[in-house]
Design brief:
Layout: E1 16-17, H1 18-32, H2 35-42, H3 71-80, E2 85-86, H4 88-93, H5 96-100, H6 104-108, E3 112-113, E4 117-120, E5 125-128, H7 131-144, E6 151-155, H8 161-174, H9 188-198, E7 215-219, H10 223-226, H11 230-239, E8 244-247, H12 253-256, E9 257-259, H13 264-269, E10 273-274, E11 278-280, H14 287-307, H15 316-322, E12 323-324, H16 326-335, H17 338-345, H18 349-361, E13 365-369, H19 371-374, H20 379-392, E14 402-405, H21 412-417, H22 426-436, H23 448-457, E15 462-466, H24 470-473, H25 477-485, E16 489-494, E17 507-512, E18 521-522, E19 525-526, E20 529-532, E21 537-541, H26 555-567, H27 575-580, H28 582-592, H29 599-602, E22 609-610, E23 627-628, E24 647-652, E25 657-658, E26 661-662, E27 678-681, H30 683-688, E28 696-701, E29 714-722, E30 729-733, E31 758-764
Parallel strand pairs: 1-9, 2-3, 6-15, 7-8, 7-13, 8-11, 12-23, 13-14, 15-16, 16-17, 24-30, 27-29
Antiparallel strand pairs: 4-5, 4-17, 9-10, 18-19, 20-21, 21-22, 24-31, 25-26, 27-30, 28-29, 28-31
């Protein structure tokens, strides 16, 4: 790796976690809150009578310890519960044009929004307006649109079940299924691929399953940064001797060595626990090839065992009773050449055969994966190959076994469960008609990329965002930003300002909402909301802090107020009654959706309740009633990556980052401090281009054959960092590198943009 001769780039020698993590927590509290109030609120984070962390979706243990938060969870909480305020006076001091020149970190660091605001083009400023006026303006625009399908309703994963359910109920009562959401950009490949494989688009394991796993395979994620509380689980598994095999292009420190802040001995002795028993640095875009290689080796081991007189290593009873398609998969694997597997994956046959032996030895295996699997042109296929591998040995429906997609945001899974779905499932539509008496539209709506394309083409004229930073999160900012500015109206329901809010339409509104940490007082008294974690546990979250101002409303109250203004008495829904007592919203969810029986009663239990997961009982809600082996033809992620001097780039989050939110400018585990203008490259790839560590370089996107490159498809003037990453691979920070990703560069099956497989060329900066 590049050494300290380059400013802000130096080797980081410590384990993940430990005292450095506690120091970062203290710094986060000091920077946004007082030490007393910050410490007090953190002790309520992820507690049964407290609030759910607005960060990741990793589940809470049944026996909650004195503190159940991590470094990046502390950053998320203090960023939301900050003492800083973005008041109307702040917006009077700064024009929108001025704010657009600020760094993303500094825009959000203005603090919490305190009043409803409307953009005034004459002064180029946001100015205060009243809530009634804001709702009336929205109603005027929506009710004047020629078609309800000219409106887009975006949802961030931070929204509660109650807010998301009301939001989709309002939009469907208005007449559209246009629900672009953050899931479209992260785990949509899971939501599309797993229902075809196993009948449900969610993980099948519980947190307790990790205590019983004989083998854990971790693919395509960096838990030490993006879901750090998972490290406690992996730490415990490593300490009891369970092998943990990692497939990841970069050697992420937390997956190498971790010092648990909750472990007094490790903290007192400055020691750490080795996490990965085997670390396989797969090429960016080589995951499917690696998975096919492991499965091919499993079949060979099974053949050898049978030839030696054994019973074989496949779970033939499971395959016969519970699956279809095995023979087609086996034929495809046997026809796959090892030379092709090695070339596409960047891994040796010997290393993949070693993993196959570990897998065949284990009685129960969990495979956990993140967006390094899903954010590819073949992301859906990647997910299905993971499921294929698990099915070969019956690793569904028994303790310690199953699939574990690790969701990045605290309630992105819950949003989908309660109806944020552009595909409008039949059961959901029937439930809404049964409970609320109107027939929702059946036609499919827009996902996130389709929404941007519709806005760009003028087919959509209105956008409402329930949280998030949509424009910055999407690929191809030149097209996306221009499209947003062409809207008739954009409405942002948000806690803090961000860059998307500054891409003003003809009319732009900012509506301030409560955060997870804050007291939600409605006509019926103090309210709790609910969320669903990555393992389908639904539990309550209750904030206690005072709101930033008396003009800040809850997300359900904002949605209901807009719905009343737009719909009037249409459909007879009593929006005021629903908001007065969120228990009534939960009654509606229970009536519409299966699995929520006794919803209001069960969330009173510490830890909440788990939604039904069919594959955990070997029940498969597929058309055939069986799990399906899914064949993926070939193994090449993207033929452009085979060109001369073409590297495949993965976009990365830094350790001081959560989604598009930049808390700071350090990425300490990777040795980057005070900057983000870097690209991680293999030293041999640098040398092949006549470059040296520390040189300034440009990255240029490689278009599809016959496709014109976007004029902005160059990321300029980065510092080259020599890093331990496979040859042919590169890494740069998101969202800055989104400029290299065409809006059309996405998985054709799920629509997920290919943030983690971007063919590029590296050249000396011009």
């Amino acid at each position: 790796m590049t050494r300290s001769t380059d400013a802000g780039i130096r080797q980081y020698e410590h384990p993940a976690g430990g005292w450095d993590a506690l120091g970062a927590v203290a710094k986060a509290i000091h920077g946004q809150m007082s030490a007393v109030s910050g410490t007090r609120i953190m002790l309520r984070n992820n507690q049964p009578d407290g609030f759910d962390c607005p960060g990741c979706a990793w589940p809470d243990p049944k026996h909650t310890s004195a503190f159940e938060f991590c470094e990046n969870g502390a950053k998320a909480v203090t960023w939301e519960a900050t003492r800083k305020r973005a008041t109307p006076e702040v917006f009077q001091r700064h024009t929108v044009s001025e704010l657009l020149g600020w760094r993303d970190h500094d825009i959000e660091d203005l603090g919490r929004l305190t009043h409803p605001m409307a953009y005034d083009a004459a002064t180029d400023r946001y100015v205060q307006i009243g809530w009634d006026e804001a709702c009336a303006r929205i109603a005027k625009v929506l009710n004047a649109l020629p078609s309800p399908d000219m409106a887009e309703f975006y949802t961030s994963g931070r929204a509660s079940n109650e807010a998301a359910f009301l939001y989709q109920l309002f939009a469907r009562a208005y007449g559209t299924n246009n629900f672009p959401d953050c899931s479209n950009m992260c785990h949509e490949a899971t939501s599309v691929g797993l229902p075809q494989s196993i009948g449900i688009g969610k993980g099948t394991v519980s947190l307790e399953d990790f205590d019983h796993a004989d083998l854990i395979i971790s693919m395509g994620h960096n838990p030490g940064t993006n879901h750090p509380r998972m490290m406690t689980t992996l730490h415990a598994a490593a300490r009891r001797g369970a092998p943990i095999v990692v497939f990841n292009p970069l050697r992420e420190r937390a997956l190498e060595r971790f010092a648990a802040p909750q472990d007094p001995l490790e903290m007192a002795t400055f020691s750490a626990t080795d996490i990965a028993s085997d670390y396989l640095q797969v090429k960016v875009g080589g995951d499917a090839a690696a998975l096919k290689g492991v499965m091919k080796a499993v079949l060979a081991l099974d053949d050898d065992d049978l030839a030696a007189g054994g019973a074989g290593l496949l779970d033939r009873d499971f395959i016969a009773a519970h699956t279809q398609g095995f023979d087609a998969l086996a034929d495809d694997l046997r026809a796959t050449e090892w030379a092709d597997v090695e070339r596409a994956s960047g891994l040796s046959r010997a290393s993949l055969e070693h993993v196959a032996r570990l897998y065949c030895k284990a009685k129960a295996t969990i495979i956990a994966f993140g967006m390094g699997i899903t954010q590819h042109r073949l992301g859906t296929d990647n997910v299905q190959q993971i499921s294929n591998l698990l099915m070969l040995r019956g690793n569904y429906g028994r303790p310690g076994a199953g699939i574990c997609p690790v969701r990045g945001h605290s309630n992105v899974q819950g949003n989908r469960t309660v109806g944020i779905d552009e595909k409008a499932p039949l059961a959901l539509r029937q439930g809404i008609e049964r409970v609320y008496g109107f027939t929702p539209p059946a036609r499919p709506g827009h996902d996130a990329a389709e929404a941007v394309e519709a806005i760009e083409a003028g087919r959509s004229r209105f956008l409402m965002c329930l949280g998030g930073n949509l424009a910055v999160a999407m690929p191809d900012p030149q097209r996306t930003f221009a499209a947003m500015r062409g809207l008739e109206m954009v409405v942002h329901i948000a806690t803090k300002p961000n860059r998307s809010h500054l891409l003003t339409a003809r009319q732009s509104l900012l509506l301030p909402c409560l955060g997870r940490t804050e007291l939600d007082l409605q006509a019926g008294g103090a309210q709790s909301i609910t969320v669903e974690d990555s393992m389908s546990m639904v539990h309550a979250s209750t904030g206690r802090l005072p709101p930033p101002s008396d003009q800040v409303r809850s997300e359900p109250a904002i949605v209901a107020g807009i719905a009343k203004a737009v719909l009037g008495d249409r459909h007879g829904i009593d929006w005021d009654a629903l908001v007065a007592d969120y228990g009534r919203i939960r009654d509606g969810i229970e009536g519409v959706l299966a699995g929520f029986a006794d919803y209001n009663l069960r969330i009173r239990q510490p830890g909440g309740f788990r939604l039904p997961i069919g594959p955990a009982q070997r029940i498969w809600h597929t058309p055939s009633g069986k799990a399906q082996f899914m064949v993926m033809p070939g193994i090449q992620e993207d033929p452009r990556a085979a060109g001369a001097a073409v590297l495949t780039l993965a976009t990365l989050r830094s350790h001081d980052q959560y989604n598009t939110t930049i808390y700071g400018f350090d990425d300490r585990y990777r040795g980057i401090f005070g900057r983000r203008d870097v690209v991680f490259l293999n030293p041999d790839d640098l040398a092949a281009q006549g470059l040296a560590p520390g040189d300034r370089v440009d990255l240029k996107a490689v278009p599809f054959e016959g496709e014109a490159a976007s004029p902005g498809a160059v990321l300029r003037n980065l510092t080259a960092v020599a890093y331990d990453i496979p040859r042919g691979s590169a890494g740069a920070y998101y969202p800055e590198a989104n400029v290299l990703i065409a809006l059309s560069h996405r998985d054709p099956r799920s629509g997920t943009p290919s943030y983690k497989s971007v063919p590029v060329r590296v050249r000396r900066a011009r």
